[in-house]
Amino acid sequence: MRYPKRLFDIIGALVALAVFAIPIVIIYIFIRLEDHGPAIYCQERIGYKGRPFMLYKFRSMSEDAEDDGNPRLCESDDDRLTRTGRFIRSHHLDEFPQLWNILRGDMSFVGPRPERKFFIDKIVERDPRYTKLYALRPGIFSMATLKNGYTDTIDKMLCRMEMDLDYLEHRSMATDLRIIGMTTWAIVSGKQF
How many other C-beta atoms are found inside a 10 Å radius of the C-beta of residue 23? Predict the structure, then answer.
């Protein structure tokens, strides 16, 4: 499945960039107009084979969101979110720049969400099975994200891990297409997750 999946990812990312070019530009402009800071945010995450990579997102928080150096998970009423950021995050539009991560080979359309090492260490303290997920490229879409939403606690991360491990055991192109379809429908229909 590895090579067909990679080919699907490359073609899919190129098509998505072409189809969503206008919304991507509009989001970029809105972020820049709101506080004049950079529109794209990059952060180190851990990916395939446990290797670090830089994940790209549209910036949804103020520039000084973690100036104290302490990693913090985003909460639903987080005061660090900008107006534009709150909207794009709630509709998962902040993830458009990850299409570049897919083209680079850092990520796939479907796979476990990539996490920061700080939080992975906390997860592994409680359940070392997390490292099995290094066998997969992390993804933009996953059943765990669809069912569990953004994670704001370690307990939610552990719940997400269980679903990701299930995906690892039962993955297929048919499963990937189903997850992409369900997630796309959820976003288009305005479902918050």
Answer: 12
